[in-house]
Amino acid sequence: MDQSPETLADRIRQRLAELDMSAREASIRTTGKPEFLRPVLAGARPRIDNLEKLAHVLDVSVQWLMLGGDGKERFKDPTTYVDVPVLSWVSAGKMSFPDVAEDAVSRVMMADLDPTGDWIALKVVGDSMDRISPPESIIFVDRSDKVLVPNACYVISNGDGEATYKRFRPSPMRFEPVSTNPAHEPIYPMREPLIVGRVKKSILDM
Known about the structure:
The chain contains five helices and eight strands; from the N terminus they run αααααββββββββ.
């Protein structure tokens, strides 16, 4: 019976070789950062959420990555992850350039997203949504969900290459900040806004 490699780094190297995948590719697919695996392969222990994403990329279980094993322990976890492109940044203030671009600057694996959605990830700039998404947060936007629901959050565009992230409120239609900064005011659109998509998840990498 084959023995599992002794260390986490050895098991990662084994799977990279079996999949003919570079450490850079695995890093980008896991966190969007090409150097993610460098310290891990040198012996550092990654955060558990990143370990879970890496296990999905390498098609093995978290248990096997952490502890090794030579039988059913190696099987992939049933958790569903979605490979989400990180496209650009979005203003959490007034309408601001750039609008949502189509070219991915990186990619990230994320659990607990509807796999049938049309997902993009955007970095938040500004503090008008800081009670939900502090600056530098990453928001996950489902572009297939454009139905306005009271109190839900959306990325909207004015159609002129400008976009923002706000909470929708009806009667009258407005898009409100959710902020500790009282300087931010609701946006009352002059015409029906273009809905980029509904924001379903916000994370902040500490």
